[in-house]
Amino acid sequence: MLPSITHLRRAGLQAAAGAVLALLCAIPVEAQSAAGMYERAQERELAARASSGSSADSVRAVARAYEAIVRRFPGSGYSDNALWQAAGLMKLAFAKSGDEADRQSAARLFTWLRREYPTSSFVAGAQAQLAELSAPPPRTPSATARAGARAWA
Prior knowledge:
Layout: H1 5-26, H2 34-50, H3 56-72, H4 79-97, H5 100-116, H6 123-134, H7 141-152
Helix pairs in contact: 2-3, 3-4, 4-5, 5-6
């Protein structure tokens, strides 16, 4: 007796479900969680900060890892922490590089933190950091002297 079409379909669906389950089991659980991603980002941050010659590019890469957590798990308890870390790292990248895009990224991340996580304990700090980022850079004595010399010329 030949198997029925229904039996063949059911067997095919069971095989497909088994393949999907095997694939999901092959991916470590921590790779799928905000906690695991946050822990790996912290490890990368510590390594970047420990390296005296860390470049702005390496700092930016870690900031992007933190931002990826927020994009993938916006409702996670790790999201506000990840935004705080990412914004701080972009501010550090700005200090290292002087690249205006880094300053803008830091401001964007601090603003995102304030807007999306208004009850976070980081909101007051984000507001202070935004004020600092929007303030004009301090004038150095040599810049002040050059400006004064030009005024008398």
